[in-house]
Specification:
Largest sheet: 3 strands, antiparallel
Strand content: 5-15%
Shape: globular
CATH superfamily of the largest domain: Ribonuclease III domain
Strand order of the largest sheet: 1-2-3
Number of strands: 3
Number of helices: 11
Structural class: mainly alpha
Helix content: 55-70%
Radius of gyration: 20 Å
CATH architecture of the largest domain: Orthogonal Bundle
Number of domains: 2
Order of helices and strands: HHHHHHHHHHEEEH
Length: about 230
């Protein structure tokens, strides 16, 4: 497949095609003997910052009643490696990655980290090619289905009840909470709890008490489930 095919999938055509090539160049190639070259890590750094800003603005506009903490958690779930690698798979980025022979031989084209990094690097490349508005448009279009799935952000007052209601729409089995660890002195303990459903780990969370940690885990699970609905 040609890069023009990828540009069609991106719904963006580069004025400087070399930027797209750089965005697709995996770090492994920079260390291959005789083929030392720049890689996409700097573009990934830039794209990550732009992605965070655009998603923050979208969540701020869509959920005027939500607080800073909840929007921060929602943004983290939208832009985690699983979400980004899923978007990379949808674009078939693996076919276009420029890898070292060693990286390709060990399945580098399908690695979630490589797909996620390339996706963020493309955001950075679009920004350098056409500016922030173009990069913003690309991000919003890429996340449109997922953002639309966030019709309502979970409640911070009763996330455990909301998670149970969400899960019981498809299953009669209730979620299970488990204390994973605690640390710190007696007067300043930090607890970590996980929540699972039908044997599958959904998320974990931390808090100053077991109850608070369970609520944090439930909130993280809700955000992850809703983000995954539209992937």
């Amino acid at each position: 497949m040609e890069l023009s095919d990828l540009e069609e999938k991106l719904n963006y055509h580069f004025k400087q095609p070399a930027l797209l090539v750089l965005a697709l160049t995996h770090s492994s190639l920079a260390h291959e003997p005789g083929k030392e070259s720049d890689d996409n890590q700097r573009l990934e750094y830039l794209g990550d910052a732009i992605l965070g800003a655009v998603l923050a603005a979208e969540l701020f506009a869509r959920f005027p009643e939500s607080g800073e903490g909840l929007m921060t958690k929602a943004r983290a779930q939208l832009a985690n490696k699983k979400s980004l690698s899923g978007l990379g798979k949808d674009l078939q980025l693996g076919q276009f990655l420029i890898l070292s022979k060693a990286e390709e031989s060990c399945g580098g084209r399908d690695k979630a980290s490589a797909l996620a990094d390339a996706f963020e690097a493309i955001i950075g490349a679009v920004y350098l090619d056409s500016g922030f508005v173009a990069a913003q448009k690309f991000v919003v279009e890429s996340f449109e289905k997922t953002l639309d799935g966030f019709n309502v952000l979970p409640s911070q007052t009763n996330p455990k009840g909301e998670l149970q209601e969400y899960l019981q729409s498809n299953s009669h089995i209730a979620p299970e909470y488990r204390m994973e660890s605690f640390s710190g002195p007696d007067h300043d303990r930090v607890f970590e709890c996980s929540v699972s459903h039908e044997g599958k780990l959904l998320a974990s969370g931390q808090g100053k008490s077991k109850k608070e940690a369970e609520s944090a885990a439930a909130l993280a699970a809700l955000l992850q489930l809703r983000a995954n609905e539209k992937l």
